[in-house]
Amino acid sequence: QLYRDARECLTLLSQRLGSQKFFFGDSPASLDAFVFSRLAPLLKAKLPNGKLQQHLKSLQNLCNYCTSILSLYFPWDGGEPPASAPRAAGADGGEAEEDPHKRRNQVLSVLVGLVAMLGYAFLSGIVSIQRGGAGPAARQPIALEEEEEEE
């Protein structure tokens, strides 16, 4: 039943697409992105049971639709990645070309992690800050109290 429904869905999509480039004319819409996200893996992946894949391959306009979107938005598919894609470290120019802001990003991620951990510690009550009274005699240094573990 599931395969029959899926075959019917593919056939209806093929009929709706007809000879158009996209479902709603010459420019892609969100429906095109959704349909492509379902059809491309079905068309390209190696599947243990290829009944549905064979049916899709028999619908030439849907195959052309997927191929058109792949070549338009993913021109490197099956070949070399685009020139703007980051290179592996040490490939041609060393690590400096990989990411010019790598060190800054590392420092920022460590700082964000520290702030998150400290925030959690204070908000959950693991660490608390207690201050003394307002008078000069009552001034005490800020003390950090750790929650005692009960045995």
TrEMBL record:
Protein name: MTX1 protein
Membrane-spanning segments: 107-129
Any single Pfam family the record assigns to this protein: GST_C_6
PANTHER family noted in UniProt: METAXIN RELATED, METAXIN-1
Keyword Transmembrane helix attached: yes
An example Gene Ontology CC term for this record: SAM complex
Parts forming coiled coils: none
Keywords, comma-separated and alphabetical: Membrane, Transmembrane, Transmembrane helix
Stretches the record annotates as Disordered: 82-102
Keyword Cell division: no
Cross-referenced InterPro entries: Glutathione-S-Trfase_C_sf, Metaxin_GST, Mito_Protein_Transport_Metaxin
One GO process term, biological-process aspect: mitochondrion organization
Start and end residues of each Metaxin glutathione S-transferase domain: 6-69
